[in-house]
Amino acid sequence: MITSKPQTATITSFIFFIVITVVVIVINSIVIFGHELVAWYNYAVVVILLPIGLLVFYRIFIRYKILKFGNNQVEINYPVLRRNKIYPLDQIDQWTENKVKTGKNSEYKELLMRFTDGEKISIGHKEHTEYPRLVQYLVQKAPKKKAFVK
Fold it and tell me: Which residues on neighbouring strands pair with residue 113, listed in sequence order?
């Protein structure tokens, strides 16, 4: 059984970002509600940072997922949402691995999977553990489901 989850360094960096965002929003909110004359940029900081912080919080922490591949099935576990989905390999509609060159000797890889019920997941190789093993498992067990991107 192959288990993949977000790497600790990724989660730590997003926690650091959320903490800084909350501190900046709280400081600007204190200024906004505590003074009669407030500069325009205090409002701008709150209006810009609040949706960004909420989006990051939702995408990284609420949608935190643990993937398990093995026994001819894919299990997607969302611990925060207390939701667990198990798909047999024949319910994979298609999967693909996108590669983008990001520098001279580096590239970003992302595994995209779509299931027959419409569920889609994406896994980045820098963000999740066991990425190469997941791709190798899909190449071995579901080669006909691979979609080729031009």
Answer: 95, 121
How open is the CA angle 19-25-29, to the nearest 5 degrees? 145
pLDDT (tens digit per residue) in 98-116: 999 888 888 999 999 999 9
Residue with tokens 């790497």: 7
Domain 66-145 classified CATH 2.30.29? yes
CA distance 149 to 97: 9
| Selection from 98, 63, 57 nearest residue 80 by Cα | 63
Whether this model's pTM surpasses 0.70: yes
Beta strands 83-88 and 92-101, pairing class? unpaired
Q: Are 2 and 70 in contact (CB under 8 A)?
A: yes
Residue 36 banded pLDDT, cuts 50, 70, 90 = confident
The rounded distance, in Å, linking the Cα atoms of 42 and 22 is 14
Neighbours of 28 (CB within 10 A): 21
What are the residue boundaries of the structural domains of the chain, listed by start?
Answer: 2-62, 66-145
96, 94, 85, 90: which is closest to 114 by C-alpha?
Answer: 94
Residue where the block lists tokens 């900046």:
24
